Amino acid sequence: MKAVQMFAVKDLRVNEVEKPCPAPDEVLLKIYAVGVCGSDIPRINKKGPHVLPIIPGHEFAGQVVGLGEAVTGWSIGDKATVAPLIPCKRCVCCKGGLYSLCEDYKYYGSRNDGAFAEYLAVKSENMIKLDEKIPYDWGATVDPAANAIHAFIRGNITEKDSLTVFGMGGIGLFAIQYGKAIGIKTIIAVDINDQKLEAAKDCGADYIVNSRREDAVVRIRELTAGEGTSAVVEMSGSPIAQVQAVLAASKMGRIVYLGISNSELTYPKEAVDRILRGQLSVIGSWNSFSSPFPGREWLEAASFMAQGKLNPDKIITHRLGLEEVPEVFRKIDQEPFYFNKIIFYPHGK
């Protein structure tokens, strides 16, 4: 089969490799769509994965074409997406159902071969059945949607809240859509890119703020009668935005940090004062899994897509063939261009 293998940082090659054979507890999936996650970019272009060589790609969907002898509940021809985490089931966190915090996990695309390939054998318990009306490329975005929903669960964010979302990548845009779907009345989107902010507006944001051109905190307070919003989700990982998220929260507000930061974060005294005097809660959100595995996040993301409450077409910006993977990552590294969710089609569109 054809697959994209990574041999070193910035070294991606389209090769012919052996088609996988499913183990007794696995299903062979024909990969019809696989997306680029924000974490793939530094993994491929800067830091490298945990093992080499490896086939990257962990946001994907496909069709069941083979079944391990111990697999039940699945049939040839079923359509599915796959949760990429393979938890150990032995550590304290796993035993408590906190699978996102597993201490000895494996992961398709970073610790195990992933889905930049025509086929992949996956654990059957990691699979989520997709409604027939959900296109495969939508199925490949259930992962970022589940990450957004996990942040809402961590922050106990409901329709009673007002919401600010910093960072209009794929997860941020799904947060906007999900917030609108559950009935939040005031949603503010913050980014430094006008194209991404227009996408946020299309996804349901009531207000958009370009923090490169204006003070985001001042503008958010203007939009909320001086109060700030009761929930703030920070998706960018930018230290500037992480501080602004605290300053944009209302009293008793919850700030959820999801964006991966590779920089130190120092709170200015105003932010510390705001946390103390406003009795704010600063909450971490990691990945997208809960009990029963893979979690409510995945089932709800797939269900909302089937109902039309989440629309990945508003987020997908590029649809390309598998052979274009190496060039796309080269361009991301050397010739920055506007994109949001990039989808590759190993068997054609």
From TrEMBL:
PANTHER family: L-THREONINE 3-DEHYDROGENASE. It comes from Propionispora vibrioides. Gene3D superfamilies: Medium-chain alcohol dehydrogenases, catalytic domain, NAD(P)-binding Rossmann-like Domain. Its cofactor is Zn(2+). GO terms for molecular function: oxidoreductase activity; zinc ion binding. InterPro entries: ADH-like_C, ADH-like_N, ADH_Zn_CS, ER, GroES-like_sf, NAD(P)-bd_dom_sf, Zn_alcohol_dh. Keywords: Metal-binding, Oxidoreductase, Zinc. This is L-iditol 2-dehydrogenase. The keyword Nucleus does not apply. Transmembrane segments: none annotated. Belongs to the zinc-containing alcohol dehydrogenase family.
